[in-house]
Amino acid sequence: MNVSSRYLDVIRGQRRRGGWQFSAKTLLAILAVIAMLGSAVYWWGVQSQLTNNWIVAAAFTAILVLAPPSLTSFLIPWSPGGMLLQRINARTIGYTVVIGAALYLLYYSFEIQYSWWAAQEAVAETGLILQQVIIGIIGFIIIPALLWTPVTSEELFEQVRQAHLVRRYELQTQADIAILRATLLRAQEKTLRGFANLTIQEREELAGVMRGLVKGIDQTLRDISESVRTVSGATIPFSSLEDNEDIRGYLEYISESLTESTLLSHSGGQAESRSVQAYDDQRFDDSGYEGQRLRPGRSW
Amino acid sequence: MDTYHFSTSRRLSERDLFDLADALALHLHETLGSRVYLLARADVAQLIEQFVDDLLIEDQQDVAWIVWHLFQEACEWELRG
Fold first, then answer.
1. Which of A50, A267, B5, B42 could form a Cys-Cys staple with B14, CB 3.0–4.6 A?
2. Cα atoms in the Cβ-side hemisphere of radius 13 Å centred on A107
3. CA of A158, closest CA in chain B: separation in Å?
4. pLDDT tens string B12-59
């Protein structure tokens, strides 16, 4: 409802005055901030030992603090919208790159932390290296990743809308192709029988099929053009096949040929109907079919 | 953009319908609290009947629909929050 409502304003006002609630997620957010500050201190300690160039060390620290949680957040969606987004993006190249980069950063973090904890005498003696590393990965990477949303709600909505349009376009195209295939098969079946053996209505139908096929291709191309314009905003120049003079000429020729033969068949109506009847009697007889189809001396 | 249609018949104008529905929604919410979110449209129609029985049947139905819709929107708002 677009019209503003006093009732809804009151409800929203009550909701805003409802106050702030301390939830487990809030606690997790506080923990994530603390963990990331700890992560920054930890990685600065490691990276500053590896190089004397403090700019490079700072850049690597920033990468190792921010990149693993942000990339991992794409892999562990925590909302129905996130799950849907993951399914939609699962087969894109970008998602494969994200998976690869996230896994490598997790591996790197694991290796460095393992070496670091192994160098701590107390931990090495008690054999708690792996446990410490896992806790470090949970705190430094998993908890921040759980709290970060890969995309905003608007971006999520847009991506889902695009995926829906693409799916709709695919189904639409499949349906169009199925209809065209059925029409073509029917036309083929009639052609195999031979034009001379077709009834007047069937000849007219065949002429219609020729035009219908071109129209169907036109319609599908127009739909594709429209779908692409809706999804990407880019306008694809569309030229109708029916507007093409050559194709229009061919269609008219076919149509005229069939119509002329129809007119001829009117003059020899008795013979024609006999031929059709004879064909109908033999159409299921395989041995006679070839002879019937290739029977010479029939003009149409 | 908010738009209104004005009536030239005996029916209520769109603005009047929304104002009436707003007032009735507020009244029912004050009386029943958040239980209004669970009401079916027929229940809403029954609850507001005494306030709208002098209106045309079509207007009565429209007001019931709008009140019910307002409750659903308020419910969605609460769930989102």
1. B5
2. 6
3. 19
4. 888 888 889 999 999 999 888 888 998 888 899 999 999 998 888 888
Task: Return d(Cα A75, Cα A141) in angstroms, integer.
Answer: 12
Whether B76 has its CB under 8 Å from any CB of chain A: the answer is no
Contact A51, A57 (CB under 8 A): yes
Placement of tokens 């291709």 in the chain: A217
**Residue A194, by phi and psi: left (phi above 0), alpha (psi -120 to 50) or beta?**
left
Q: Does B74 touch chain A (CB under 8 A)?
A: yes
A279: closest CA among A210, A189, A187, A208? A189
Interface with A, mutate which of B1, B22, B29, B37 (most A CBs under 10 A): B22
Cβ of A5 and B22 within 8 Å?
A: yes
In this structure, is the dihedral angle defined by the CA atoms of residues B14, B20, B21 and B23, taken in order, positive or negative?
positive
Taking only residues 1 to 20 of chain A, the set having a beta carbon closer than 8 angstroms to any beta carbon of chain B reads 1-8, 10-12, 15, 18
Given CB atoms, is B42 within the 8 Å cutoff of chain A? no
Nearest residue of chain B to residue A4 (CA atoms):
B2
Please, what are the averages of pLDDT over each run of 10 residues along chain A (300 residues)? 75 70 80 92 92 93 93 80 74 87 94 94 91 94 82 70 72 75 77 72 77 74 67 59 70 70 47 43 42 40
- The three-class DSSP label of residue A297 is coil
pTM attached to this predicted model: 0.43
What ipTM was reported for this prediction? Answer: 0.82
How far A163 CA lies from chain B's nearest CA (Å)? 24
- With residue A255 as reference, give the H or E element that holds it: helix A245-267
Quickly count: other Cβ atoms within 10 Å of residue A104's Cβ. 12
